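Sequence in, structure out.
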Amino acid sequence: MSTSDAATELGRLLAIMARLRDPQGGCPWDLEQDFSTIAPYTIEEAYEVADAIDRGDLDDLCDELGDLLLQVVFHAQMAQEQGAFAFADVARSINDKMVRRHPHIFADASAGDAAEVLRNWEAIKGEERAAKGETDGSALAGISRGLPEWQRAMKLQSRAAKVGFDWPGPLPVLDKAAEELQELREEFERGDVAANKARLQEELGDLLFVCANLARHADLDLGAALRGANHKFERRFRAMEARAGEDGKRLAELDLDAQEALWQHAKADETAS
């Protein structure tokens, strides 16, 4: 598809959204929406893009990217109705930002490798925040509170590491994880879970934070790791249901020992295949 084709299709999408939001004859559902009601869909569509990538399904990726683009257009249309900004302003903003943050491509700066590109990128972001009058000089400044918490944890840790506050490698992080797991166990062993929820939540948070740190040290994608675990669980659970069905039973009718046996069968079948 040529650039002109892309421009034509984008213009068509903008016109469709404007029609859907037209107070005279527009879609009742679309007209009821605002930024806060659409935001959850925006997050959901981003995750569906990641899922299509994880599955290697390029046809689905094309479709999901379209859904994500629609979210950008929807927000821009609502902003335009309020006189705040329009889609063209969104596109101009990111165009200017990409040029500004790649001086080794669009200006006379140099960057020898990807690591240097990232260092320059962070430095330019700091300059941009200062130019906006932001006074937060912390190394942690600018990390969005709207991120999924696991992703925010990794960003906080990465920023701290840039000023030297970091573990020397993954093995000490594993030791710390074992320590946090023991502390969590001790809280459970106190008994009365209902009365101890605050402490349990704090200790669980500490353990998860260390797990995020471990993923960062090993250069692993924590989101992809969790998606993989979710897919594995779903795949094996569905296999359990299918095997129970072959015996004329529903999974809910079986006791835990029988369910565990089916789980082990599902694992063995995966290993064999």
